[in-house]
Specification:
The complex is a heterotrimer. Helices cover about 35% and strands about 25% of the residues of chain A. Chain A is α/β, with parallel strands linked by helices. The two termini of chain A are about 45 Å apart. By secondary structure, chain B is an all-alpha fold. Chain B has a two-stranded antiparallel sheet. A two-stranded antiparallel ribbon of chain B has the order 3-4. The mean pLDDT of chain B is about 90. By secondary structure, chain C is mainly α. Chain C has 16 helices and no strands. Chain C is globular and about 70 Å long. Chain C starts with 7 loop residues before the first helix and ends in a 10-residue tail after the last helix. The model of chain C has no long low-confidence stretch (mean pLDDT about 90). Classes of the chains: A alpha/beta, B mainly alpha, C mainly alpha. At the B-C interface, α3, α4, α11 and α13 of B face α6, α13 and α15 of C.
């Protein structure tokens, strides 16, 4: 397949820390990486950007030896290197900060850092040296952590520092960070970037994997763009702009505006006042959140991932009990004294498209038709009598598959065997068929192909125009801005303000996401 | 008073004897489960060890050879457990059940094929067994009041294997908490991905943990059939493997606490045989079956969080799939 | 679940057959190693299970037990729970039979007594599974460990009861007196005049249970909830399914199936509660459920197979010097190993064979 070389300007002049050519990797029928070429200059911060599912993590896992490429070669510092395991990668001077931290919560920082390079059979032999090394690294890069603290007691930002320390301890010259900011607050992100700059100055090559354009623009020297398993371009960051990068990522002009027409909001369907929630560990994840959602509008909730949006959806959906405050749903008050379960909420007219369709929205080992009645299996949809009726279920599923263009339109196929977009369509078809009075929607297009995204967006707007009140949570700011009529921004569990979507812009919302009230 | 002390010491002495196989199996269970592999096959490995020790000793006349063979034999059962659960990622509980049933069947089938005595092995001479060792100085200490009695009745006079079991507890603690192997082993039971990403083989670590467990169960089996007993009898493990598992849980997957649990369970068993039919003042006759059920009851209560809080390894029971 | 490129039919029918074959081959090797002829042993077992007079009755009598205990394991499996407690639940079912029989038996007609006593076996089995179910659902205790412990607790309880409060007066053996006649389930040999065997009408209760199980799991809304809970408890929760409640109900049903084993052993055969009447049948249920792939038809076949093995195994004792009925334990262990823990070991090999033979096309996946 032809590369879009118009933007390619490889950093050929500089010494290359890493050079990949022709790397491919398949998982069963899915080709995650197709013939990837990548050159990374030593001592630079190199961004790799792409949508969810573009194959970035697979590529990095190949680099780090967690997956093995089907074909292709890799050069590190100019010499051909074979990496078969993470042990090889570590030896080759590659360190990785994983998206999901590889830290044992019950171990101390020291134990986690020592794991794998203990410095002798008896732990004591390598102990003091490791503590000294940690102090040294802390001094050099501003990565101060108490070596005797338990990981479980540390916050996310500090845990990430421990991950970086782990990678640097052995003297890594290439540091891979896989979506490092997804869990960080803006301040922590800022601190992380400072650390990365010091590392770069020290000669470390940094590979930053992200799907966020602003991060690429803010910190990288060069950027490579991936789409659908392929490398579609390499640019010097200074010579590109977000619009161009976005087009390369998505593969066509990005429609940042969806033609949604004007909303005609009517009666208030859902009213939240002073909602609080505490986690098991006592951290306050929702802090005095209040808002109203009316029939015929899409109420968007924006924010950096992990600022309470997920928990808010779970409380609204009856998955988590209310910690404090009140929810009024169609006149029914729900508070900490009155618990309600998801089934009862459904009965009252609440639909829920969960954020994670694999874990929460579908039973992957059920047939599509069984999934089509999940949560509605106690209604006549699944059969009129006491027993479930296979024929009725199949017919219902077939009809829904036709309406929502699910492919293949085979009700007996297991949900696992559909693509991400078609799986999501099954969930959406199911929740929309019930004609809910309020629909909770989480990350409606995560990991969904472009064609399906448009379809799903149009369906949501159509449902709004039929008079449904929609609560939309998405970490994609563009999505919230283009779909929502009103937007609430969340930061650290708090409502930072509610703004009219037509009267705001990404800058204003970004400030609110960073914790500056509107 | 002296009589009471003697009675108490005898009960304590018996507790140690009864606890010996429990301690060894419990340490085996700790190694396996700390590495993330559920081990309900302790019972089967104990039985295998008991049979092989008795059979090999009977044929060779050497208890040392019997002990060695038992350790190897139990380790083979561990390897089978590893083959199905680590290599083939099979269900760890299913594999454990299979090994327990296989052990129950094979020990009898092979026993009959070898000795034709209905599943038992021939009785061993005392010379061919690990008999109680009288520690030096018992005569000398005899004259010292109290301490002399304690030394004679309690500290001295156990099988070599009992002393070995007691020595294995601090050794296990040292390996688990003070060595790099132990650090990795505990990590692999908590977050195998972290171990993998540190460049260490998850599979090989778990295999080694299981193999250590096999060796220990083999020693425990040898204790049953060529030390405290003089031959192998069908089903001679009689649930001890499961009591050891209970001790692992009750000991919160920690060596010292597990040792304490084993001694407690051993003491209960020792006390039961002494209290059978005895009327105690105020309490009346102790229901013996109830006392024997205590290990099971406390385990259930502990797991349910009614007494203390269990903290099993986080990744236990989950096969690691790269 | 990975299919290793096997087509559906091969995964459902061929793979289990290959696994069973593997288990039997390994057992054959063990027989050969101890110096006997495995083929001869097989012939003796088949004769012992089906050919000799009355042998079929014995085989079906064992089958009855294994249907009940297999269902006890399979029901829990559908909700992703491993019920190792079938043995204890069946034991308690025996207590239920005895208590109900002595309570109702002397006064009422069999038409009323038998349903009551059958219900009592189910209720007592259910009770013994309910506690582990409750602890799993609401206290987070692991069902495997708890049901193991409850097996031992059941044994302790029954020893105490049978050697104490329930013991027949003036007797030394730990057992209850004979149950009232009205609580006895008739034997086939008495009714139909066939060869003498313990086979009795509880066999039909077992067959009915299979049908009930099929309806429950695949036709009812509860069964749907059980399967959803087993395959993805989080999604089930999002769908409004009360997962802890489903777990408890599943265990109650599983325990009830196990408890009804007492309709065969206590009401049909021994006519009194005796020590250790469960005889490991509860554990055999694990092999039956695994081999039968938690499907009623598979369970029926597997129960028949194990019924034949148990009955045929008895014959081994007579015919051979070195092979005894413990051979059945070996086969049982091997079946659990190959059909359970190593269920997919043969899958890639089988897929390659089928591809070479041209039965299936395409590349290997996964």
């Amino acid at each position: 397949m032809a590369k879009e070389t118009n933007t390619t300007r490889g950093p050929s002049a500089a010494r290359l820390a890493l050079e990949l050519s022709g790397v491919s990797k398949s998982f069963g029928p899915v080709q995650a990486n197709k013939d990837i070429d990548l050159s990374v200059a030593a001592g630079t911060i190199h961004g790799i950007i792409g949508e969810n599912g573009a194959g970035k993590s697979t590529l990095m896992n190949i680099l780090y030896g967690l997956h093995r490429a089907d074909s292709g070669t890799m050069k590190i510092d100019g010499s051909l290197t074979k990496i078969r395991s993470s042990a090889d990668a570590i030896t080759a001077g590659i360190g990785m900060v994983h998206q999901h931290f590889m830290l044992v919560p019950r171990f101390t920082v020291l134990e986690n850092v020592m794991l794998g390079s203990e410095g002798g059979f008896v732990l004591r032999e390598g102990r003091d040296a490791t503590i000294a090394r940690l102090a040294e690294l802390g001094e050099n890069y501003g990565l101060h952590v108490d070596p005797h603290a338990l990981i479980a007691d540390l916050n996310v930002g500090t845990r990430q520092r421990v991950e970086i320390l782990k990678a640097l301890k052995g003297g890594a010259k290439i540091l891979i960070l896989d979506e490092p900011t997804g869990v960080l607050t803006p301040q922590e992100t800022e601190q992380l970037f400072e650390i990365l700059k010091v590392l770069r100055a020290d000669g470390v090559t940094v590979l930053l994997i992200t799907h966020k354009l602003d991060e690429i623009m803010a910190i990288t020297d060069n950027v490579s763009i991936m789409r659908a398993g392929e490398m579609v371009g390499h640019c010097e960051t200074a010579k590109t702009n977000p619009q161009e990068l976005a087009e390369l990522m998505v593969g066509r002009k990005v429609l940042l505006e969806v033609d949604k027409g004007t909303s005609k909001p009517a009666d208030t369907r859902l009213s939240v006042s002073g909602l609080n929630l505490w986690s098991d560990r006592g951290h306050q994840v929702l802090n005095d959140v209040s808002f109203d959602v009316r029939a015929g509008e899409i109420f968007g909730i924006a924010g950096v991932s992990g600022n309470g949006q997920s928990e808010l959806l779970e409380v609204l959906g009856g998955m988590l009990p209310v910690g404090g405050g009140r929810i009024n749903f169609l006149g029914q008050t729900i508070d900490s004294a009155y618990k309600i379960n998801p089934a009862a909420l459904r009965g009252l007219g609440m639909g829920h498209i969960p954020e994670d369709r694999h874990e929460h929205g579908l039973v992957l080992d059920f047939e599509a038709q069984e999934n089509m009645v999940l949560g509605y299996h106690n209604t006549p949809l699944a059969g009129a009598g006491r027993l479930m009726q296979g024929r009725a279920i199949t017919a219902h599923c077939q009809a829904q598959m036709d309406t929502y263009d699910v492919r293949p339109a085979n009700p007996k196929l297991h949900a696992r065997n559909f693509s991400g977009g078609n799986q999501q369509k099954i969930v959406i078809a199911r929740e929309m068929f019930a004609d809910p009075k309020v629909l909770l929607v989480g990350q409606p297009t995560r990991g969904v192909d472009v064609g399906a995204i448009e379809f799903i967006h149009n369906q949501l707007i159509a449902l709004r125009d039929r008079g449904c009140a929609i609560v939309l949570v998405s970490v994609e700011l563009d999505e919230v801005m283009s779909l929502a009529d009103r937007i609430m921004v969340m930061n650290d569990g708090r409502n930072m303000g509610i703004v009219d979507a037509s009267k705001t812009d990404a800058n204003a919302l970004g400030l609110m996401m960073a914790g500056v009230a509107a | 008073m002296a009589d009471f002390l003697l009675q108490f010491l005898l009960a304590l002495d018996a507790s140690f004897r009864l606890a010996t196989p429990l301690i060894l199996c419990a340490m085996a269970g700790i190694f396996a489960e700390r590495s993330g592999v559920v081990d309900i096959s302790l019972e089967g490995k104990l039985l295998t060890g008991a049979f092989i020790a008795a059979a090999v000793t009977a044929m060779s006349g050497s208890p040392w050879l019997g002990l060695f063979a038992a350790m190897i034999g139990s380790m083979c059962m561990s390897l089978l457990h590893g083959f199905s659960t680590i290599t083939h990622k099979g269900d760890q509980v299913v594999s454990g059940v299979a090994i327990n049933i296989l052990a129950a069947g094979l020990t009898i089938i092979i026993g009959i094929a070898l000795f034709r005595t209905g599943g038992q092995t021939p009785l061993l001479d005392n010379a061919d067994r690990f008999r109680p060792i009288i520690l030096p100085g018992v005569e000398l200490m005899n004259n010292v009041p109290v301490i002399g009695t304690i030394y004679r009745e309690f500290i001295s006079g156990h099988s070599m294997l009992t002393y070995l079991a007691l020595a294995i507890v601090p050794l296990s603690f040292f390996i688990l908490y003070r060595t790099s192997f132990g650090l990795r082993l505990r990590a692999v039971g908590e977050l195998p991905e972290a171990v993998d990403s540190a460049g260490i083989s998850v599979y090989w670590l778990r295999y080694r943990a299981l193999m250590i467990g096999g060796l220990l169960c083999g020693i425990a089996g040898a204790y049953l059939s060529i030390s405290s007993g003089a031959n192998f009898i069908r089903d001679m493990s009689a649930g001890k493997g499961f009591i050891a598992l209970a001790a692992v849980i009750f000991g919160n997957w920690r060596p010292w606490k597990a040792l304490f649990s084993c001694l407690l369970f051993g003491f209960l068993e020792a006390a039961t045989s002494r209290l059978q039919g005895v009327d105690l003042p105020l309490i009346g006759e102790i229901p013996v079956t109830f006392m024997l059920a205590i290990p099971y009851i406390v385990t259930v209560l502990l797991l349910a969080g009614f007494i203390g809080r269990p903290s099993p390894p986080a990744a236990i029971g989950v096969p690691y799939d790269k | 679940m990975k299919s290793y490129g096997l087509p559906h039919w091969a995964e459902i029918y061929l793979l289990p057959a290959v696994n069973l074959l593997m288990a039997l081959i390994v057992c054959g090797i063990v027989i050969a190693l101890i110096g006997e002829n495995p083929i001869e042993a097989l012939v003796v077992m088949i004769k012992g299970a089906f050919v000799f007079k009355g042998s079929l009755g014995f085989t079906l009598y064992y089958t009855t037990n294994f249907i009940f205990t297999g269902l006890a394991v399979a029901t829990a499996f559908h909700a992703l729970m491993f019920n190792i407690g079938g043995e204890g639940q069946a034991y308690l079912g025996g207590l239920g039979a005895a208590l109900a029989a002595f309570l109702f038996g002397p006064h009422l007609s069999p038409v009323i007594v038998i349903p009551l006593v059958v219900a009592s076996t189910a209720a007592f089995g259910a009770l013994w599974a309910l506690i582990p179910g409750y602890l799993q659902a609401y206290r987070g205790s692991h069902i495997v460990i708890t049901t193991i412990m409850f097996n031992f607790l059941a044994a302790s309880l029954m020893v105490w009861l049978l050697a104490g409060p329930l013991m027949q007066a003036g007797q030394q053996s730990p057992q209850t007196p004979i149950l009232p006649e009205s609580a006895h389930i008739a034997k086939f040999s008495e009714v139909f005049g066939v060869a003498k065997s313990p086979l009795n009408f509880s066999f039909f209760i077992a067959l009915l249970s299979l049908v009930a199980f099929w309806v429950l799991i695949w036709k009812t809304r509860l069964g749907y909830e059980i399967r959803a809970t087993g395959k993805n408890p989080d999604a089930a929760k999002y769908a409004g399914i009360n997962v802890p409640r489903v777990i408890m109900i599943t265990m109650i049903i599983a325990g009830a199936f196990a408890g009804m084993m007492a309709t065969n052993e206590i009401m049909g055969v021994h006519n009194r509660a005796i020590l250790n009447f469960t005889n490991g049948f509860g554990f055999t249920g694990i092999a039956v459920a695994l081999m039968g792939r938690n499907h009623p038809f598979g369970i029926l076949l597997a129960a028949l197979l194990f019924g034949a093995l148990f009955q045929g195994g008895v014959e081994l004792d007579f015919e051979f010097q070195s092979i005894t009925r413990e051979m059945v334990l070996l086969i049982q262990g091997m079946v659990i190993l190959f059909s359970g823990a190593l269920a997919y070991m043969m899958a890639p090999i089988l897929a390659r064979v089928l591809r070479t033979l041209g039965v299936i096309k395409g590349e290997a996946h996964g």
